[in-house]
Protein 1
Amino acid sequence: MRKVELNPTGSMNLLSQQEVSLLKQSSSSPLYQLFRQCALAVLSSGSNTDDVEAILSQHRSFEVEVLQRERGVKLRLINPPDQAFVDGELIQGIREHLFAVLRDILFVAVKYDDTLLRGSSGPEATNLVFDLVRNAQVIDPEEEPCLLVCWGGHSIVGPEYDYTKLVGYRLGLRGMNICTGCGPGAMKGPMKGATIGHAKQRTYRKNYIGLTEPGIIAAEPPNAIVNQLIILPDIEKRLEAFVRLSHGIIIFPGGAGTAEELLYILGVKLDKRNKDQVLPIVLTGPQSAADYFNVLDDFIGATLGPEAQACYEIVIDDPVKVAKIMRAGVASVRDFRKSVGDAYHYNWSINIDESLQLPFEPTHESMGALRLFHDAEQGELAADLRRAFSGIVAGNIKPEAMAAVAKLGPFLLSGEPELMERMDKLLEQFVDQGRMKLPGTAYSPCYRIQTAPAPGG
């Protein structure tokens, strides 16, 4: 049996005895299994799988213990994966990620009531997200605006991955920091490219921020470049953190998760209270992804209309143009924030509706109750479309949703014929192009689409 003890790093290296005692208590609670699962995911970084059960089954003897010591807390790893070590020493980046898991899974549970974590909305949710990212020591109030959020799929083909690196490189040359969902594919590529750009400009101390949540991290372990990992309590707080921390958003090709992210930010941008907000959004990919973006743009136009399409710009096969747009956009964000007295490091002034903040639990009942009809208000339709894609993501990779689908069959999504036809076409494209699972993995749809008359129609 292999045992490894680790001293804390980051914000976990200075705790009171009371905090350590509470951490120790929480490590023996039902929350422990979530903590163990996320710790194992971090230690499995680099494994070519998005199957949570496969990772868990390969390491059934793995355990992680929280040890109370006079000077604070330690972690003891029992039978950790060999790939996390080099010559018997734990890789430093993985060590940092492990203590981020301790901080965000156990420490946050000790500090906050579960009702607040799971059910908050409005200013309460916004303040909570701020507290979580501040606790992770990500916010630097002295830094000039330069954080770009990059969204895209974990399962992308070679030319698309190479393109994300080219865009990241051009951003790095312009001194931009990168924030992604922290996993592989389009979440890793921009960071990898940016490291080269930063190195050429001799700007070595840059941030590569990864935002994830417990249900996703096990299927998409953080890539090795991430040097600031934050695990938010749920997908909605993760998405809010992306928006409030960002100074611009770049969207690469992806699957249901990427569609969810695009629908989320469009729901925010279409809110009339945000009509003056400045936040540049670019959809981009290589020439081979042009058809992907045509179908996605067509879907947005047919469901949310030209106003939604006007919220973003599509750039095909031109990394330099993307970087120039973002550099100019970041300057505009800075000017806007200064004019309204908002913080550079956290966008307090942008409004995020409660429908985009309250956690959505994908079940057969909740997925079937989504109102996918054009007679809904624009914001309501965007919110329900976002929930639909969020449920598909859950059915693809989250254990609880996968178990429900295995037991009861696919989630049923229903709505008006034209809308559902376009949604079906978009999802079929994701499946045909292998965007739902990692390459080489067979995909069995966790959803079924049908048409229905509008309520009262």
Note: The chain has three domains: 3-111, 124-340, 360-451.
Protein 2
Amino acid sequence: MHIIELNPTGTMNLLSQREVGLLRQSSSSQLYQLFRQCALAVLSSGSNTDSVEAILGQHLDFEINVLQRDRGVKLELINPPEQAFVDGELIQGIHEHLFAVLRDILFVAVKYGDALSSASPGADLTDIVFEIVRNAQAIAPSQEPGLVVCWGGHSISDNEYNYTKEVGYRLGLRGMDICTGCGPGAMKGPMKGATIGHAKQRLYPKRYIGLTEPSIIAAEPPNPIVNQLVILPDIEKRLEAFVRMAHGIVIFPGGVGTAEELLYILGVMLDRRNDGLVLPIVLTGPESAEAYFTVLDDFIGATLGPEAQACYDIVIEDPIQVAKTLRKGIAAVRDARRLSGDAYHFNWSLHIDESLQQPFVPNHENMAALKLFKGGDRGELAADLRRAFSGIVAGNIKPEGLSAVAKQGPFVLRGDAELMAYLDKLLLQFVDQGRMKLPGSAYSPCYRVER
């Protein structure tokens, strides 16, 4: 048995007796099991798998305990994954991430508890998102705008990964910070590239923010470059944190998770209450990804119309142009925020509809009930398309989705023939290009499209 005790890093050094009690090891303690799962994901950073079951199954003897000491709190790791250590010493970035997990899970449990699920949409949920990222010290109120959110798949080719690094490098040379979903692939590449750009410009310290949530963290463990890890309670609050903190967004090739993110921001941009919103959005990839973006753009045009397509630029095989576009766009963001009096660090004036804030439970009943029909409100359609992709993400990698599909078969998606034809075409391309699972993994569809 391998046992190691860790001293705290950052601000998480004191806990109350109540907080320690909440995390007592117990098979019946949901909070402890959540903490264990997230901690194991952090310790598994760099593993070549996107299977929650595989990670948990390989480490059945792993446990983590919170120890209350007179001088503060410690973490006790029992049989942790060996890959988290170098010559017997835990990698410092992983050490920090473990205490970030402890901080965020406890903060949400103690402050909100059961009230989280009953919070009213709108200002109440936005306040919760703000308080979580503020508690994690991921807010930088004194800094000029310069945070670029990068979205893209964890399952991408080497060519696409190298392209994300080059874009990150060009952003780093221009002093921009990076925020991603914190995992591998297109979430790691921009951070890795930006570190070189920042180093060349002697820019220290810089921010590499990773936003994740418990149901996906095991499938997409945080990469060690992340120096500010934040765990939001669910995908909807994670997406809201992205768009309220962002000064610009870059979208790389990906799968259904990336499509979900794109549809989320388009749902926000198409809201008439956000007319005049300044937020540069660039879809980009190497030349080999041009067909991917063509199909994605066609899908957006066919479902949400030209107004949605006008919300973003597509740049192929030109990292310098991407960086220049973001730099110019962020300058416009700064000017717009200054004129409106809105905060640089958190976009309070952004309106996010209830349909994009309410957590979506990915089960067969809810997936079948989605209204995937053209002709109605585009914002509502964007929200339902976002939910459809969110459900497929769950069926691919999240424990609750995997369990539901295993018991009841694939999720069924229904809608009008034209829209479903475009949806089917897009999803088939994701499958053909290996964007549903890690390269080399066999994919069994968790969905069925009916027209």
Note: Residues 120-451 form a domain with the Rossmann fold fold (CATH 3.40.50.450).
